[in-house]
Specification:
The complex is a heterodimer of chains A (about 270) and B (about 450).
Chain A lengths: L1 H6 L13 E10 L2 E11 L4 E5 L6 H8 L7 E6 L2 E2 L5 H6 L2 E4 L11 H5 L14 H15 L15 H13 L5 E5 L7 H16 L3 E6 L2 H7 L2 E6 L2 E7 L5 H10 L7 E2 L7
Parallel strand pairs in A: 3-8, 3-9, 6-7, 7-8
Antiparallel strand pairs in A: 1-2, 1-4, 4-5, 9-10, 10-11
Chain B lengths: L1 H7 L6 H11 L3 H25 L7 H26 L7 H24 L4 H28 L4 H19 L10 H5 L9 H29 L7 H23 L5 H11 L16 H19 L1 H11 L1 H6 L4 H27 L10 H11 L11 H20 L4 H26 L1
Chain lengths: ~270, ~450
């Protein structure tokens, strides 16, 4: 199957270029369950790649291996062509891989600035926390993302869903990310905030950042992604350019595991 | 505690002005509740003594001075317990670690060092303290390692530790009481000689007042620099004035407690002087253990609020998974928190054994209960992520006030146990109600 993919010119528009991220043979099992089973996936600079699949298909486990939150059983991660030994979240951040988790992963009891700089605090020259500087920086970045955000002194548990989301996004983009992983970024948002996130994705893409967009909302992915992967039962059903497949075909991939002619079939596709 | 918190909550009728006052001064309503509870306990015991025993002994310089010394040991450990509970753990072994390190320090300074260095050598007390603090830290670190890296729940590790270290304390000195401790070491336990007198207390008091004013001024300037909202000027002055008044009041109080006449007579005899007929008033001043508690409180507040370590402790308590995903080494932080707790047990062991002038393997028995109660009464939440150091010290003062108040008015030790145990449960109940209301 993969030989076929290599020979199909329509889907390798950027052949010859080094992928920003290339994951090969990624596997993870929990007990006897193969949550992720030999998945190959790549991402180029300035590209948005959608990862689609049912709940429990293995999307979140796959990206958590990239962000270092879950240790992989096997597989290789290459960043800019070089093997990247990512074993914990700190390693991933060192490679400029930032993640916005579905749960947002905010410490509810501390304020926005402390969350933004969690694990990367600014310090004074005596080594103490420079809260004033962190709050000033937070005001700057939040002003860009969400100008109406003013509740800097309160613990983030007091904030609305959209405000919490913008704190999580601010944390991911503030530290010069090269790769951004967004796990269901619009799940908790209203229509206006969803549009804001879409604008942000376009802006980041224009800056050359590669984005993995994990979603079960097919419309989101069609609006924003250049390519998409469909995952079912831990395996890739297929990969396609969003321009060359229809929503119905992609639904067929998600639900039935049936790969349409314009997509590159993966190991998880049903053969007839 | 219970009455005050229950009263202050429903008094919503005059809420307008009062809430505005709290907001302007940025005073935590919990802090006021705690001070109210303290006042209630103090006045209550005093009046009880007055009416039932014919003598109100609580609100006297002598008793309040003693209270401050008794609070020191529990207060020091409570500051560490705040961080432990903030991280959603518990430490049930603090009393046993205290006993173990106290006995270890006892044999070091009474059995082992004098033959080596000569009795009364100035190095004895220094080496002894180092031994105690290092031992305490190591024991705490061992607990932390088992909890963080072997993933055994803190409840079990420290419950086991409670027995282990109490047993170890027995073995170190074969169950003997080790005394008397080194004479310099004994000063760290307080008493007339282990206090700094009137002049020293005034100096400390004035430095503290200057510190309060400096903090207010610096805080205001910092807020101005970054354009953050400011407190109204009257609120700043009020907070500063009340802070300084409390400090001056405390100094006047400890200076109003004179040396007992027997000690004064000894002092005059030692100096070769004739004691005046009319008697002499020598102010005791701050006891050294109280100064240790204040120092520990300042250092721990700094650690908790101004350093990365403290920020991580609170973030882990708020959301352990988020902290892990943010790249915080949560296991290492856990180990450090328990090691710190062990170190503070060592400090408390110095205070307790110096105050007793001896070390026994029963020292610190049931202290874990008081320490946990102090932290919880002081606003540390068992659901993690919330707590303050000053709150825990005030909580220790509340617990100690209850305890010594009951002794003073002549309650049975059985009654004391019932009251202390109930207060702990009630404090946690009030905490849950308080948090539910705020949401």
């Amino acid at each position: 199957m993969s030989e076929l993919a290599a020979g199909s010119p329509a889907h390798n528009t950027r052949e010859g270029e080094t992928p920003l991220v290339e994951m090969t043979g990624m596997s993870k099992s929990f007990g006897g369950l193969h949550a992720v089973d030999r998945i190959d996936i790549n991402l180029f600079p300035g590209e948005v790649v959608g990862i689609l699949g049912h709940n429990g298909a293995g999307k979140t486990v796959l990206i958590k291996m990239l962000s270092g939150a879950i240790r992989r059983d096997s597989g290789t991660i290459r960043v800019n062509g070089e093997e990247a030994p990512i074993n914990n979240p700190r390693d991933a951040k060192d490679y400029g891989i930032e993640t916005i988790y579905q749960t947002l992963a905010l410490a509810d009891n501390v304020d926005a600035a402390s969350n933004l700089f969690l694990g990367r605090e600014l310090r004074t020259r005596w080594g103490t926390l420079d809260d004033a500087a962190m709050e000033a920086e937070a005001r700057k970045v939040m002003g860009r993302l969400n100008p109406r955000f003013v509740r800097f002194k309160e613990p983030v548990i007091a904030l609305s869903g959209g405000q919490r989301q913008s704190v999580a996004i601010a944390r991911a983009i503030h530290f010069n990310a090269h790769v951004l992983i967004m796990d269901e970024p619009t799940a908790a948002l209203g229509p206006q905030e969803t549009a804001q996130v879409a604008d942000l994705i376009k802006q980041l893409k224009a800056e050359g950042i590669g984005i993995f967009l994990i979603s079960h909302d097919i419309h989101d992915v069609f609006d924003l992604a250049d390519r998409l992967y469909v995952i079912k039962s831990g395996q890739v059903v297929g990969m396609a350019s969003t321009k060359e497949v229809t929503k119905d075909e992609v639904l067929g991939m998600i639900i039935l595991g049936k790969c349409p002619p314009n997509a590159v079939p993966g190991p998880g596709a049903i053969r007839d | 505690m219970s009455d005050v918190a229950a009263k202050s909550a429903p008094s919503a009728s005059d809420e307008g002005a009062f809430t505005r006052f709290l907001r302007a001064t940025e005073i935590d309503s919990r802090l006021l509740g705690m001070i109210g509870a303290l006042a209630l306990i103090w006045v209550g015991f005093h009046l009880y003594g007055l009416f039932f025993n014919g003598y109100g002994a609580f609100l006297t310089p002598r008793n309040l001075w003693n209270l401050s010394v008794q609070t020191a040991s529990i207060g020091v450990m409570a500051t560490g317990m705040v961080l432990v509970i903030v991280m959603r753990h518990i430490d049930l072994s603090v009393g046993s670690i205290l006993g173990f390190t106290a006995v270890a320090m006892g044999v070091t300074q009474v059995w082992y060092l004098p033959p080596l260095l000569g009795l009364g050598s100035p190095f004895i007390w220094i080496i002894t303290i180092i031994v105690g603090l290092v031992l305490g830290t190591l024991v705490g670190a061992l607990h932390g390692w088992v909890i963080a890296y072997l993933r055994v729940p803190a409840f079990i590790v420290t419950l086991g530790g409670q027995l282990v270290w109490r047993g170890a304390a027995y073995l170190v000195a074969r169950g003997e009481t080790v005394s008397p401790v080194d004479s310099t070491f004994a000063l760290l336990g307080g008493g007339p000689h282990g206090s700094i007198g009137a002049y020293g207390s005034w100096i400390i008091g004035l430095i503290a007042c200057a510190g309060v004013i400096a903090l207010i001024v610096l805080g205001r300037r910092q807020r101005q620099r970054f354009g953050f909202p400011l407190r109204p000027i009257w609120a700043e002055i009020l907070v500063g004035a009340v802070g300084c008044a409390l400090i001056v009041g405390f100094v006047l109080l400890v200076n109003a407690y004179p040396w007992p006449s027997g000690i004064v007579r000894q002092y005059y005899r030692a100096a070769g002087l004739e004691m005046p007929e009319s008697g002499v008033f020598i102010s005791t001043g701050f006891a050294i253990p109280v100064l240790i508690l204040i120092g520990v409180g300042i250092v721990m507040t700094f650690l908790a609020t101004r350093t990365r370590f403290g920020r991580y402790v609170f973030a882990i308590g708020g959301n352990p998974e988020a902290a892990e995903l943010a790249g915080i080494n949560t296991r290492w932080v856990t180990l450090k928190v328990f090691a710190l707790m062990g170190l503070l047990c060592g400090v408390s062991a110095v205070i307790s054994s110096a105050r007793l002038n001896s070390a026994t393997n029963a020292l610190g028995t049931l202290d874990e209960l008081y320490v946990i109660a102090a932290a919880v009464i002081g606003g540390t939440s068992f659901s993690g992520g919330l707590g303050t150091i000053y709150g825990a010290i005030l909580g220790a003062l509340v617990m100690q006030s209850l305890q010594s108040g009951m002794v003073l008015v002549g309650f049975d030790s059985a009654v004391q146990q019932i009251v202390v145990g109930s207060v702990l449960v009630i404090a946690v109940f009030i905490d849950t109600v308080y948090r539910r209301r705020r949401k």
